[in-house]
Amino acid sequence: MKSLFFGGIHPADKKELSAGGPPLRRLEPKQVSISMSQHIGVPCKPLVGVGDQVKKGQKIGDGEGLCVPVHASVSGKVVAVEPRRHPSGQEIMAVVIENDFQDTPDETMACHEDYRKLNLEEILAIIREAGIVGMGGATFSTQVKAASSMEKVETLIANGCECEPYLTADDTLLRNEADRVLAGMHIIRHVLKPERMVLAVEENKKEAIEGLKKALEKEKDIELKVLPTRFPQGAEKQLIQAVTGREVPPGQLPAAVGCAVFNVATFAATYDAVVQGKAVTERIVTVSGEGVNHPGNFRTPVGTSYADLLEAAGGVKAETCKVITGGPMMGYAQDDLSVSVIKGTNGVLGLIENVDTGDYACIRCGKCLTVCPMKLQPLHLFEQIQLENKKGMEYYYLMDCIECGCCSYTCPGKLPLTSSFKAAKQKLKEER
Ligand code: SF4
Ligand code: SF4
What we know:
Layout: H1 16-19, E1 25-26, E2 31-35, E3 45-46, E4 53-54, E5 59-62, E6 70-71, E7 76-85, E8 91-99, H2 120-129, H3 142-149, E9 155-160, H4 169-192, E10 196-202, H5 206-215, E11 222-227, H6 236-244, E12 259-263, H7 264-274, E13 282-288, E14 296-301, H8 306-312, E15 322-325, E16 332-334, E17 347-351, H9 367-371, H10 378-386, H11 390-395, H12 406-410, H13 417-431
Parallel strand pairs: 1-14, 9-10, 9-12, 10-11, 13-17
Antiparallel strand pairs: 2-8, 3-5, 4-7, 5-6, 7-8, 13-14, 15-16, 15-17
Helix pairs in contact: 2-3, 4-5, 4-7, 10-13
The structure holds iron/sulfur cluster (2 copies).
């Protein structure tokens, strides 16, 4: 099948490493460190102090604006409220809880078997209160995204592409618990009232596709769309183009072309919140890479350290040179394994190949122009960043870069294109 969007690449997907690993099991860490920043926006303020007893699912941080509350992922005693290392590399306030292994549940949130009796504002309020964010890694408030899409959406898309190499967390969810995803799609449909619902999956998830075909025999109003495997098809704008043929104009949101996209895990979390009365306290995380002894997928309480996760996967090999949060294309390298899982953590990888040679030069081959899914000119952008020319960066649309990594992957000159774009974007944002 040919690509359904401009540019992109087809790296070796390496998904067999974790997809064939041990069965899904829930980790039970002795201690969790719950970051107050697990969403796009200002961090939450802690609502508990050292010495407090907390229940599993209890709200322990909240704030205003785009802020999304965070919850205790285990029951136990708060032993610290202090800045801790975040996956972004910053020191951010966290609530540290000593697990009492009792799993005492917080029962503040109610169950709503028949969510159709709720009005739309009530459903959106539950989604916020449960702490739901874009679970594919975007971590934007799901309540705000849904509220701002109301009455504008013709096509609702469930994103099950998981196009990053190595990652199989969404695949595992779809293979084992597709019913939660489908139920969540119906709830969001009740809010957004689209004419069409599509569950999009890449063709490399054969077992999940077979299971979904069976499940959807009874669900005639959800369309399964099997897409050719191509990176970054899971990026919002590229997925919309692949599913509908429509291009979201630069600087605009999916609603501009009548679409809304949510990750499959976000739909599952919506079902848990509205029907089961459960906040986001855990997620499926892929632990994989050639540097990991026993790759697999784990049901992981939010706040579990990377050290505990890697240990659950049999530890790392001596030759492991890099640990990454997320996939190898768009993820962040980590130098501290005390960093903890947040709601958007879909993978932790141990890699043995070090691609950063530090020895680079542009040979003007033009390959980066052909793979950039945003139709940018990475070589010129890189030049402007080297020159520290802000007008030039704007001229070449730096802020439209989705940091997908396709240009770096393709570049024979080994230029650190994506990392320099990420850093320049961050600098411009801070200056603004
Ligand atoms: S990282 Fe940015 S510039 Fe490079 S291919 Fe992706 S969108 Fe284009
Ligand atoms: S792919 Fe790399 S070497 Fe080729 S033009 Fe782009 S920046 Fe230069």
